[in-house]
Amino acid sequence: MACWSRICGRVGLAVTPPSHRVPTHHPCPEYPDDLAIEFKPKWLSQSPNAPAGATRCRNCAREVPKYHKDKYSCSIPFVCPLNYIICRTQDYNLDFIVHRLAGGRGWGDSPRTPQKDRLADWLQTNTLIPQLRDAQVSNDSSGPLEASASDPKFALAMTLRDCTCFVRIPADPSRPVEAKLADLDKKNAAAKMASWQGMERRLIEGGFYEEKEALTIQMDCQLWNEGWKVDGSAQAEVLGES
Asked: Residue 181's beta-bridge partner residues?
């Protein structure tokens, strides 16, 4: 784990080994009123293997066959991970993310609170999520279909696409917001490559990237959402071009 932590550290990420304490959903005895959040950022940019005409990102495309298989166990509706990038500049996406992670910031009957405002500020200003996105992109320029199982950079990219982010928003405004990544155990690319490539082929050949599957499912994917599509800088950021 120490060696893998050094690798992650070189790409600018805050690494939290499993033995270290991280924020969780469970209240800390010392600070029972803290707001603790856990989420998986997943793929923060489009798959390099996605068709040119894709209208869904990698994660939204992946969710559709899961729904077809068992609509009761899948995560639809879920948060399109591109929201974590877009919310830095788009207020609608920001409010949506805060609502999903912490019960809202003025949505419906959910009251606005100072902690939710601090979460919103963290979502817009943190460097952890953009660094995570950049590390995913820089370590995988060709996608699963062209990658080699012996390439440690690709294994790192896939690890970073399945890590967990923990955020703790203290009730005491004088204490800082904590944010760390966990679940960074190195992926066994040799054992998983066939599965990764098989899934990518299925998403492409089944039309899931382009909403051409036999039974179309409406997803709230942000890849070509009109709310941010006109913003060229936002589009470039999501596609890893900035």
From this structure: 15, 165
Mean residue pLDDT across the chain: 80
Q: Give the residue among 132, 77, 89 at the shortest CA–CA distance from 235.
A: 89
Three-state DSSP class for residue 178: strand
Q: Tell me, what's the pLDDT at 18?
A: 35
Burial of 200: CB neighbours in 10 Å, binned 0-12, 13-18, 19+: buried
User: What's the rounded Cα separation, in Å, for the pair 237 and 7?
Assistant: 24
CA dihedral (237, 57, 11, 140) in degrees, to 10, reads: -110
* Least confident among 7-11, 34-38, 219-223: 7-11
Tokens of 30: 């010392």
As a whole number of angstroms, the distance between CA 182 and CA 188 comes to 17
pTM: 0.81
| Domain map (residue ranges) of the chain | 2-238
**pLDDT at residue 220 tops 60:** yes
Which residue, 226, 231, 158, is CA-closest to 191? 158
Q: How buried is residue 41: exposed, middle or buried, by Cβ count under 10 Å (0-12/13-18/19+)?
A: buried
